[in-house]
Amino acid sequence: METYLPISYLNDFIFCPYSLYLHQVFDNSEEEVYSAAPQQTGKASHINIDDEKGNKKQITKILKGIYVISNRLGIYGKIDTLYVSEKRLVESKYHITTIYKGYYYQLWAQYFALIEMGYVINTISFFSIKDRKTYLVNIPEESEFQELRQHIRTIARYDFEQEFIPNPTKCSHCIYAALCDKTQNDHVYT
Ligand code: SF4
What we know:
Blueprint: E1 5-6, H1 8-15, H2 17-26, H3 31-35, E2 43-50, E3 56-64, E4 67-70, E5 75-78, E6 81-83, E7 88-93, H4 101-116, E8 123-128, E9 133-137, H5 142-156, H6 168-171
Parallel strand pairs: 1-5, 7-8
Antiparallel strand pairs: 2-3, 3-6, 4-5, 6-7, 8-9
Helix pairs in contact: 1-2, 1-4
The structure holds iron/sulfur cluster (SF4).
């Protein structure tokens, strides 16, 4: 089976490349996900509609947490929410103060995977849960696809044994700080 990168790595790598290495070492609970074919195991809600002949028909209205995969990009992962009828993809985060590049990469990856799987999407956005703000995002095009592909290649080719200077500010907000051999800092969650 070919190797696919989890979509979550796209943002985590920007936060700190070494965190991906620690994730692989300590979080093997996702092992079955790495080796299993991604499946649509998320939640779906449905609505009943009448077709043009008056027959009842059930259509999927909202998909939450389903797995998506892109063979073109070599990535897989879960989406947050797809409002199927509205053709609207939403990525929710607890509190968005800045939309980091890694957030875009995650959303673009979800979008491209869904398109490749046959879904139609007209709008994509972020939703900040804490202050209930919506941030509309431009639909990514070929240039964004190429940028994302380059980012994925950079992750795939990254040498985790190379010299590495940690960022103490990031370390203090990293869940792996207590386990990480690159820093003496502990994280703020202890
Ligand atoms: S503790 Fe610091 S160096 Fe280690 S993985 Fe986290 S951010 Fe990176």
